[in-house]
Amino acid sequence: MVLAIHKLGDPVLRYPIPEGDIDQAELKKIIRDMTDTLREANGLGLAAPQVGILKRIFVYDMGEGPRVMLNPQVVWESDETEEDTEGCLSIPGGEVIVRRCTAVKVRALDELGEAREIEAEGLLARMFQHEIDHLNGLMIIDRTTEKDRRRLINDMIREDRE
Ligand code: ZN
User: Fold this and answer.
1) What are the residue ranges spanned by the domains of the chain?
2) Catalytic residue among 19, 26, 131, 159
3) Annotated catalytic residue 121
4) pTM for the whole thing?
5) DSSP letters for 1-40
6) How far is the CA of 132 from the centre of ligand 1 (A)?
7) What is the largest CA-CA distance in the chain?
8) Tens of pLDDT along the chain (162 residues)?
9) In this structure, which topology does domain 11-161 adopt according to CATH?
10) N or C: where does the chain have the smaller number of CB atoms within 10 Å of the terminal CB?
């Protein structure tokens, strides 16, 4: 089932979600709904709070089929950082510059509850950091330059008036 994506301004996006156990049957349904929603939205990644679910879960698809990360933790990050443009399904139409670590190592459980560790760099590392931010109540608007933040807010005000 495709779920509604919550947008910037919705308090559900600003809540740092504590780690917790998830019932297997509930998890299966959440994953199915989240992957349906990600596919429909044509996104790279989607975090649970973006669809109003207060669990530490995100799904992603880099073109190799949907993957799931449950209770993800960044266990290592590179000293090196880089800037690039980033969008967010919860901020339609707004791409901003965000500085991120160029590489990270993430530990998480997969959909079967198996522990996995993934080393990522480039776009995958950027997406992991973006989605884990969502689980901590953070969004790209918190990570961007003052100039881009102002532009994004002005765009939203203009859209509201129209
Ligand atoms: Zn996002």
Assistant:
1) 11-161
2) 131
3) no
4) 0.95
5) -PPPPP-TT-GGGG--PPP----HHHHHHHHHHHHHHHHH
6) 9
7) 48
8) 999 999 999 999 999 999 888 888 999 999 999 999 999 999 999 999 999 999 999 999 999 999 999 999 999 999 999 999 999 999 987 899 999 999 999 999 998 889 999 999 999 999 999 999 999 999 999 999 999 999 988 888 887 787
9) Peptide Deformylase (3.90.45)
10) C
